[in-house]
Structure formats: structure tokens, C-alpha cells
């Protein structure tokens, strides 16, 4: 069997969507989805595997940027819609599509590949590292109060274009200082507030609350919907927090208080939050807030090692010659000399003997500062050519602020 890996054309889209939905065990209205995604997908970034005239694999990306430690935004490819038909597994199709996209990303000047993994064991083989954890937080509103007093004002807003634009302004300011967060696509804001039909799901219907500071400026928002329930003739509604972002501690605390004090609400479930969310510190009973489903969120694949290392901040002084095992690099390895500290970093290709050899997936896991490099190397191993080099690199990459990506794709 000959498999051709190439970019999809517009006339491929019906078969492409059909193969994609089969990979995810869905049976949507393919014709409607094709019309929905035509204006949204960049076909130059949409890869397909074709065998005997049939689409047997899918792999696509979209252009974004990610905030790295220190607040710099670097270009990245957000990977999604990855499938291989169950009849064509174990034939190198996924590896071929990933290699094609990574080569194209290098040509586009993107520093990273990013994705959320539907299954954990898959993507480490292609150089992606489990980099930014997420968790679901559940707040029992009936057994706690809040420290302090609310500030500013909270208003319920109509889901319209001005509301969308104000939310986007808050998010843009917030994501530029949050390591691990990415730029969202413009149309995703229409989906978020229900101004546009979801291609793969029902239209969002819920509520949007703004926090305004003393000057009347919007500095935080919460987007949420309810799951109604009654027990023993008492309301026990769960409020599902779709997202909450705030530019100040006061806005963060006041929005959480507002949500917890809504009538009929006995619990709040907030998915895709940081495991280190500060919510519990707001509460008079910190046990009322519990994290669950703690695990991998955003995965990072380093594509341009020099730019990645040189453009992030480091909280400690250090220097190391890193040799990174990367099957996609010429010769399967790339070697970089890194000198870094709070005042800046210099990274350059080198032929010097390495101090430390690590796998590209392990470095991707540790890059944003929230994962232990020493732990990440346990899977593929590490070669320490200079005593203490691994511990030094571990300290160099760790950060006080943990990474978090609230944007699912």
C-alpha cells in the first residue's frame, strides 16, 4: 500500500471531515461542518494521508503564539484534528504527517508545536513534552465564605460584539503575562459568547459577568452556565465556570465571590484551571475547594531550539552545553551552548563537548518552568557528561510562576 501525505484541497474536505469524525467515533453532519470550516481552516496547514484515493489520516494546525517565562510571545503551531483510521494504524502514517507539519513549521519560522493529547502515550514519540498541567476545581459554596470584602462592581452583560471585544481585551492583557497561555483565533471569541454556531457542538448559551474597577474599567470577566438540580425540594444547581480571567487580585476575588453567592448554586465546577489556582486562599474554609482530574494539559514540541532557549527568562545564573536528541534534526542531535541568568540569555549552536544530553520531549516538558527536567528525563534517560549538569539545568529551567494554558483546541 502506498500512502501519500500532502496538504488537503478544498474538494478533499468532505472525505477529510468524514475520516476525522471516524477517528473520533462521531457521526456529525459532514456537509454542514465542511461549510462551517471552509472559511476557518488554513489548507496550507491541513495535512492528509491518502491511500487508494481515500483519506486515511488527518493532521492540521493553526498559527498562534505562546507566552514563555519572562513575558515574551513566540510563534507556534497549534496542532489539532489528529487521527488515523483504525484500518491503517501501525504504518507510520502519523509519524509522516507530524514530520511534514514540523518541517513546514520550521519554514514558517515557528518555534514550537503545541497540542492537547487525547491519549497520553502517543506524542512523546514525536518530540512533544507534557509541559503545562491542568485541573478541575470544585467549590462547595454551602460550607464557606470569603475573606475580605468585594471591590469594584460586577455586572451581567449581554452576549454581543461589544461584550466579546471587552472580554478579548482582558484576555489579551492577561495572556501576555501568563507563561503557557496562547493567542486565540478571532472566530473563537464568537463561539465563546454564542454569536456563532459551533461546527462540532451546540451553540454556547450561558452568562457573562464583568468586573469593573473603581474607575469603571473592565478588568475581569467570568463566563458560565448552569446545570440545574433539585434534591429534597431544595435547589442544588452546579454552576459550570467556562472561564474566568482577571487582571488584578481584587477582580479575581470579587468575581469568585459573585459566582459563589448566586442563588440556587451549591457547587461550582471549573475545568481547565491551574492546579495551583489561588481560589482556596480566598476562602474562610479552604477545604471547600478541591482539585481533581489533575493531569497533562498543553504539550510542547521545541522546533527552533536556539530561539526557544534565548527568548525565555531565567531566574538563576547558569551555563550548560545541551545536546538534544531530536530525530528530526540533522544527524538526530542538536547541540547548543546556553548562558543564562536574570539579566538575559545567550544561546548558540556549538561544537563543544556537551555537558548534558537529553531527549527533545523531556526538554519540551521542562521548558515552561513547571515540570522537573530531572523527572522528565526518566522516560528516555539523560547522559550527564559533566558531574552536576542535570541538577544545574533543572534549577535553570524552573520558575516561580507555573505555566497554565486555559485555551483548549
* Unreliable residue stretches: none
Cα(first) to Cα(last) distance is: 32 Å
Number of helical stretches of at least 4 residues: 10
**How many strand elements?**
19
Shape: globular
Largest sheet: 12 strands, mixed
| Largest beta sheet: strand ordering | 1-2-3-4-5-14-6-13-12-9-8-7
Mean pLDDT rating: 97
The whole-angstrom Rg is 23 Å
β content, as a range? Answer: 25-35%
- Give the topology string: H per helix, E per strand: EHHEEEHEEEHHEEEEEHEEHEEEEHHEH
Helix content: 10-25%
What structural category characterises the helix and strand content? alpha+beta
Write structural notes for this entry:
By secondary structure, the chain is α+β, with helices and mostly antiparallel strands. The protein has helices spanning 13-23, 30-37, 93-108, 161-175, 186-192, 249-260, 305-310, 360-366, 373-376, 389-397, and strands at 4-7, 46-51, 54-67, 73-84, 112-116, 129-140, 153-157, 207-212, 218-227, 230-231, 234-235, 237-246, 265-273, 289-302, 318-325, 333-341, 344-349, 356-359, 383-384. The protein is 23% helix and 34% strand. The strands form 3 sheets. The protein has a 12-stranded mixed β-sheet, with helices on both faces. The longest helix is centred in the first third of the chain and has 16 residues, at 93-108. The protein is globular and about 65 Å long. The two termini are 32 Å apart.
